[in-house]
Structure formats: C-alpha cells, structure tokens
Known about the structure:
Bound molecules: calcium ion
Amino acid sequence: MKLRIPAAxxxxxxxxxxxxxxxxxxSLDDALRPPKTMGNEAxxxxxxxxxxxxxxxxxxxxxGNYRSAIITKDLDGDxxxxxIAFFCGKDETTRLHMLVMHETDDGWKVSGDFVTETTDVDxxxxxxxxxxxxxxxxxGYSTYSPNVNFLSCYxxxxxxxxxxxxxxxxxxxxxxxxxxSNRTEVVTLSLYSxxxxxxxxxxxxxxxxxxxxAKSSVAMDPSVVSFKHVTFGExxxxxxxxxxxxxxxxxxxxxxIIYYNRELAVLRNPLYREKVKNITLRTADVYxxxxxxxxxxxxxxxxxxxxxxxxxxANTADKMTRHTFDAANEALVRENxxxxxxxxxxxxxxxxxWEADTFTARLDGNAMRFFEWNDKSxxxxxxxxxxxxxxxxxxxxxxxxxxxxxxxxxxxYALKNNxxxxxxxxxxxxxIKTSFSLLGDTG
Length: 443
Ligand SMILES: [Ca+2]
Ligand SMILES: [Ca+2]
C-alpha cells in the first residue's frame, strides 16, 4: 500500500498571525499525557511515523477543549472517526505538520499533510462554518508575538482535506452562533498589542473565494490584557451574543457584550466606550453566565453595600446585581441582587422587596451578617450566615442557635435568624435557606 501525501503547504502567511482559542486557564494535565499505543491509535501513530520519516515530535495544542497532539473526531458524520495529528519532523524546528488521516477498508490513509511555518498549535476546534455537511477543522497557530495567533481552516470531504483561506490574526477564537442558533460562525477576539488593535471580528464563509472573511469588526477595550471567561448565548429579545469577561492588568474584571445588529449590519460592543468607565468593572471573580437557567446570559455588576467609613468598607459585603441585556436599547436590565461572600464561596439572594440603602451586610470572620441600615449607620441585625468548619459543626462547637443550610466536606453553612414578625425585613428560615447559593452555582 502506498501513502498519498498531498503537500498543501500553507506557511507563508505569518504576517496574518491569528490563532487559537483562548487564554482560559485550563489544566494542562491532559495535554501532557502521552497517547496510548493500542489498536487504531497504534495504526495512526505508524502512519504518522511513516509520513514524518526520520522521527518526529508531537505538538500539543496549548489552549481550548482539544489538548491532544492526536485528535480523533468524526468529521463527516459517518460514525467512523477521522484523525488529526500535529508534529514537527526531525530537523524541522519551525515547520509544523498537521496530518489529517482517515480510515478506509484498506487501513488508515493520509488525507492531507499541511505544513505551517510555526512552532506551536494554540488551539483546535471543529464547527460547520463552510456550509458543508462535514465539520471543518479550525486551527490556531502560534506566532512569535505573545497573544497573537493566526487562524487556519480546513474542510474535509470524502477522504480529501482542503485548506480554506482564513489568515485572521487574533488572540482567541470561538465557534458559536451570533445570528441564528442553527448556524455556526467564528468570532475572533484580539487583545491590544503592537501588531493588533483590540477588536472582535465576525467571520463569514465566502464559497466563491473559498475563504473566511471579516464580515464585521468592532473595537474592544484595549486595556483588557486577558480573557477570563467567554460565553455564546441568547441575550433576550431574539438577539444572540458573546459575553466576554476580560481582566485588566490590575486584575479587575469587566464584561463586554458583542452582538450583531442585523438592521445596521454591524457588530456592536455597547458596554465598551472609549474613556468611559465600564459599568461592569469589578474586583469580584464573577462572570457572565446563565446563572438562573432561564436560557439568557446574565451580566453581573458589583458595588459595595452601604458602609460608614473607610474602615468598615473592607468588611462590607459586595452587592452583585445580575442583569439581562436589552439589545433594542443597548442597556442592562436589572434582574436580582445578591450579597457576595467570595472568601467562603457563597452568596445570598436579596429579597426583591428590600429597598436599596435600607440594609447592608458585614463580613465578619466566617460570618456574613445582615443589618438594617439607618441612613448612615448600622441598625437592627436581620440574620446571619456562618460558614463553620465541617468538622467543628460535626462536634457541635459554638453551633447553638444555628440551623444548617448546606454542608460539604469543607464547610457547614448555617443560619441564625434575628427577624421578628413586625420587621419589614422578616424572613422565615426557609426563605433564608432558599436565598443561599454557592458562588460556583451563580458565578
Ligand atoms: Ca468519519
Ligand atoms: Ca439567565
């Protein structure tokens, strides 16, 4: 049997350095685990070593969901997996091969060997972006500039793999849907650098030119130095968007909402305005996500609950407000308020009838205590939630008067209710229990 190795050489376009998915802080454990040599995998590795001749070094994608140097994926939906491998041949330190392989009745065959002038794969993803029935292969390759990668796209059909022009320079890319939920698009995000403006770009496939091209771009906040959390989803009112939680150099976080305005046929980023403070700027590590499972992305803003002076400020809980996004007015719409206790990983939903500036919450060791707020000072205690060490709770140490809400290996969260029936803040123990949630569940 003879191997067919089409030498579709990409390379060349280092100036269009685009690339991988994101800087999300994912574990590298999987990436560092060598592939097992069994069955199909052994055959695939044999094919790689036959193709590479003279030895090779596998290359592991550094970001994204696919961290293996040999990825198996059924691209054309026939229930038989294809395989993709990344490697540098011996003496080829700056030439990276992407080998696409498929299984035939006659064993595994090479479908395409694409060589790129680079040293690393940033990220791999699969999505139907060219309108074919098969999943397209999206690869981000690293460049020598930090945070700058370049995007390549390949389409697979009937055993053949072809390169699709992409050549977008970017810092992170995401496959999802901005226009209709049944269609997948690629959105690239670029951090500000000497080579790049900070921007988001929506890519669309042009079948005549066999190329992914920038349909629309919008400026993003150039002070953001990394992306912490990115999510595609419904914003409400039939508008879909991508919520980007980015970190500034001082580790504060802000959200940007990117959506495609069909009437104007432009990408929009309304929460970012030059020289205007982003209203979502926060120190708390809470992200845009659908925390209440209503199908819409919730966008957090964070501010301090009332406090007397700078000394009490540090011990005052943050109030997080969850919003939905109203695309028609490009405005955030308040949903619910929560008091945050990040140190002990929980939050408490504020009852809707509690008016702002009539209550506050203090963080006191392992307790969060709610008080009435009388204009400028603390009033009557309302209730408290205390995170007991689980072992201490077990031993019943200092637990008198507390009712358990939730317990895990580390903490036993318990409440002490101070309200009585003539208080406007009156809550039952059950109402307090229901208002409690772990931050991982909402953040
Ligand atoms: Ca297949
Ligand atoms: Ca929601």
